[in-house]
Design goal:
By secondary structure, the protein is α/β, with parallel strands linked by helices. 39% of the residues lie in helices and 16% in strands.
Length: 276
Amino acid sequence: MFTLNLNGELLVVKKPLVFGILNITPDSFYAESRYQNETQILNKASQMLTANVDFLDIGGYSTRPNADDISEEEEKKRVLDTILLIKKHFPTAKISVDTFRSNIAKASVEMGASIVNDISGGNLDEKMFEVVSQLNVPYILMHSKGTPKTMQNLTDYDNIIAEMIDYFQTKITQLRTLGQKDIIIDLGFGFAKTIAQNYYLLKNMALFEVLNCPILVGISRKSMIYKPLQITAEDALNGTSALHIIALQNHASCLRVHDVKEAKQIIDLWELMNVD
């Protein structure tokens, strides 16, 4: 159990959280997670909220490998318009904003987002740590290297777990010094990592508990699942569900998913195995 301070609202977390992916992009790797108009956005949000999603994770910048860069203005418009739309139709919905840009993080929280989810760990905007520490919301600190365009060429490590723990310890110290209270770590599956490295991290994920932060796992329908099985992202739900069980067994506190109903069912069944 842990708690999260959501801009003054204390959330007591007694079971793993589910973040539902809501991509306001034309080029995310999984076609069915792309939402281009208000009807599509509201239909998907309604579906996830009906399935009791904990947070709608809204992103306006595709971070798939080799994704094209877009301007801050375009990302901001996509994200803020969507938050406004969600809050209008679903005022009690909890929102996380998936951005590495501090200006967008700040504007999103001011508009009603409750968590900042940064795939760059502050590396792509030097102001992110300072800004987020002033917002009074949790920060998801992910491990990555480079940018979406370059990260797949940056997969060399002498000792991946030791290097990642050092990365997290350094950044957690920086954030704590600035006054950031709630930090969730994300190992960044698929970001500057090979398929073999992804599975090694999943197998050894519990080692990261030394950091004393909840762990978010984002593996939903990723290439680490569909490439070894020689299928597509569209056919990767079964593999995703299997790996979600492994993630929970290895102490994941949050799952970031495309398929909320299935993830919630997995958590319910996993909890039955962990009744004292």
